[in-house]
Structure formats: C-alpha cells, structure tokens
C-alpha cells in the first residue's frame, strides 16, 4: 500500500472513531427526556437572582401591606402598582396587556398630570416580552407620587413621547395607575 492510501484510511478511521466517541459522550451526559428538573425552592431562587431582582423581590415582600392602585380596561384589571421604596426601578404587580405590543412608562406627577417620563419598558405578548419592572433613568424620591401609564408602540421599537401615545379607556381616561415612593 502506498502512503497516501494508508493516510486516507487512518483519517477515515479517526473520523469514525471520533463520531462514535462523541455520540457516546452525548448519550452518556444527556438525561432521559422524561426527566424533569426539580422545582426551585425559594432558597434556590434567591441564589440565582440578580441584584435588581433581589431588590424588587424585597420591595414586593415589604409592600404587601401598602396601598396598591390599579388601572382598568373595560372594568377589568390592567395592572397594579404598589407604593414602593424610592429607587431606580418600579416593580409592577399583576399585569394584563391592553394590546399585543406597547410600552409601560413611569412619569413624575405634575399636579395630578403626567410630568417627565422617567423610564419605559416595552412589552410584546407575541414574543413573550412581559416586563415585571420598569428601569428608570432617574430615581424616584420618597414621598413623591408617580404615574405608570400604558403607551402605544409605533413600530420602531424605540420609545418616543412624540410618536408613542398614552393609551386611554372609553371616556378618555388614561390607562394608568399611581403610586407613592417611600
């Protein structure tokens, strides 16, 4: 046999051996499809939380006895927002989306009207984008009131106060809730 043929055979044998070994390793280290991971306990969840998630979780536990306001869609709950600690995020309670896609925006209170927009979180129920909180550009301040408002999405997936408009219910009332930072 010449050297080229022998080298070709060695290459083919090494390739097949690699496939077999790789297949065996995949089979060995993959669980059976019927196996499901155990439910996470609250201790497991705490260990895997980010700093923001831990802060929100603590705020939600802390706020169980505080005032919660709600926005309504045709008499049904749209979302709830509890009074919460001042900070760089606003935790949302229960949420029901009025449209497939839009924004949830936090505003300062300006004498009962919407003031500056402090932060926005986009939602899209078709792709599973359902925020639990809104990250802010400026922190809320203790003792001040804030508005959480649903906005439309104009299609560019970028929040713009001029193009994305506040949603309202019949009668023109904004689809919003208020909370007080503490």
Molecular structure report:
The chain has 182 residues and is of the alpha+beta class. It has 3 helices and 8 strands. The strands form 3 sheets. The protein has a 4-stranded antiparallel β-sheet, with no helix packed on it. A two-stranded antiparallel sheet has the order 1-2. The longest helix is centred in the first third of the chain and has 27 residues, at 3-29.
H and E order = HHHEEEEEEEE
Summed up, the helix count is: 3
Radius of gyration: 26 Å
Strand content: 25-35%
As laid out across the biggest beta sheet, the strand order is: 5-4-7-8
Give a count of the beta strands, DSSP E runs of length 2 or more: 8
- Fraction of residues in H or I helices: 25-40%
Mean pLDDT: 77
Spatial gap, N to C terminus: 86 Å
Question: What would you call the structural class?
Answer: alpha+beta
Biggest sheet descriptor:
4 strands, antiparallel
Q: Any low-confidence stretches, pLDDT <50, length ≥5?
A: 32-46, 62-68
Shape: elongated
């Amino acid at each position: 046999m010449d050297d080229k043929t022998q080298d070709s055979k060695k290459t083919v044998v090494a390739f097949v051996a690699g496939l077999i070994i790789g297949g065996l390793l995949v089979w060995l280290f993959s669980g059976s499809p019927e196996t499901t991971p155990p439910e996470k306990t609250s201790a497991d969840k705490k260990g895997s939380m980010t700093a923001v998630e831990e802060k929100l979780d603590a705020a939600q536990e802390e706020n169980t006895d505080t005032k919660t306001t709600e926005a309504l869609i045709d008499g049904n709950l749209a979302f709830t927002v509890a009074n919460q600690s001042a900070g760089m995020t606003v935790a949302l309670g229960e949420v029901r989306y009025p449209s497939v896609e839009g924004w949830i925006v936090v505003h300062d209170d300006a004498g009962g009207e919407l003031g500056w927009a402090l932060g926005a979180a986009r939602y899209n129920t078709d792709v599973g984008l359902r925020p639990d909180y809104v990250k802010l550009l400026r922190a809320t301040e203790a003792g001040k009131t804030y508005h959480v408002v649903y906005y439309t999405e104009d299609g560019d997936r970028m929040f713009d106060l001029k193009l994305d408009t506040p949603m309202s219910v019949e009668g023109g009332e904004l689809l919003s809730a208020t909370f007080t930072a503490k």
